Amino acid sequence: MNPIKILLMAALLCLPLVSVRAQSAAQNTQPARLKILVVHGPNLNLLGTRETNIYGKTSLDDINLRLKEEGKKLSLDVVTVQKNGEGDLVDAIQSAKGTFHAVILNAGAYTHTSIALRDAIAGTGVPVIEVHLSNIYAREEFRKESMIAPVAIGQISGFGGESYILGLHAAASFLNSKK
Ligand code: DQA
Asked: Are 121 and 148 in contact, with CB atoms under 8 Å apart?
């Protein structure tokens, strides 16, 4: 066979390989997806049955499912965790450093009492968005103070389960503005 033809055929046979390589190189240069940790504090595992007149009938599983769906739309990886203990929440905040780009935090009753949580946020520097289902300013006096607010990027309070979705959008907009 004509040597030029042989060369041409060899080149044609190698083409798919070249294009697969080019594709995977392109994939490797894709920017890393933003990762968001959603931290639910004490008693939020009871959502759906707990004081439904205040917190509504949506369960925590439903909220988490919605967060993951909305995360996909916003190209965010969403991981959720619920803990009742203050120390566990401190651990969750500390573990977010270097792994997650931002944290959405509903610290429940610890919002109003926990200097340890506030210190964990200040100490790690992880961007935190504080969320509450209820409007904490329209309730008892003791709920009007948040230990978290001064070290958070911002706070969303009073929109039921939707507060978390708003928090996710706030996180996306905050992080994208930093790019
Ligand atoms: C809450 C408000 C807190 O005062 C309360 O202790 C909670 C839930 C909210 O989401 O509205 O547990 O954080």
From this structure: yes
For residue range 57-83, what is the model confidence (pLDDT) as tens digits?
Answer: 999 999 999 999 999 999 999 999 999
pTM assigned to the model:
0.85
Tokens at 39, concatenated: 């931290």
CA of 22 to the centre of ligand 1 (A): 51
Query: Is 55 tagged catalytic?
Result: yes
Residue 31 has a pLDDT of: 65
Contact yes or no for 68/78 (Cβ under 8 A)? yes
Work out which ligand 1 atom sits closest to the CA atom of 135.
11
CA-CA distance, 110 to 146, in Å (whole number)?
Answer: 9
Compute, in angstroms, the gap from residue 27 CA to the centroid of ligand 1.
42
C-alpha distances (whole Å) from 7 to each of 15, 69, 86, 131 are: 12, 51, 70, 65
